């Protein structure tokens, strides 16, 4: 009986984790901007979630596991900030691919291919604290309450971070659009 309950729990976890993995990995990739780090971060979040699955309230698996991922990232980011890290010149040459759902429409895929790198670059200019909120809201579709839970800050702070992050992102994209001639240069 105990074995059956453990197997059932493992199967439930596996099916839920498989369903949200594209979002989990995509968020990790946008946070780290490095494929290998994103794979490690997503895998670590899966392991931590599996270990804590018996404490999961069953409400919103995606929000719960994204909170784990976000907390892991924030903790690593803070640790790197305290300790510092070196950057290889090889890292400067690597490219980052946005991760999307296979069912996306062809016109959406074409637009993503054309603008994906520019959007990713603009997003990289958004300070970490605001970028996390924008990613969870705009790319993962989480509610303000879910983001507040995931980042462990009040809802008002989430709203402020999203507004400020979007404003920075808008400025960066407008700058790009002017440089490429999509918008008129201001005189």
Fill in the keyword field for this structure.
mainly alpha; 187 residues; Rna Polymerase Sigma Factor, Chain: A; 2 domains
Describe this structure in words.
The protein is mostly helical and 187 residues long. The chain folds into two domains: 1-83, Rna Polymerase Sigma Factor, Chain: A, CATH 1.10.1740.10; 105-187, Winged helix-like DNA-binding domain superfamily/Winged helix DNA-binding domain (Arc Repressor Mutant, subunit A), CATH 1.10.10. Helices cover 75% and strands 0% of the residues. The chain has eight helices and no strands. It has helices spanning 2-32, 35-51, 61-83, 89-93, 106-124, 128-139, 144-151, 155-179. Helix 3 crosses helix 7 and helix 6 crosses helix 8 (155-179). It is elongated. The protein starts with a helix and ends in an 8-residue tail after the last helix. The model is unreliable at 85-108 (pLDDT under 50).
Topology:
Elements: H1 2-32, H2 35-51, H3 61-83, H4 89-93, H5 106-124, H6 128-139, H7 144-151, H8 155-179
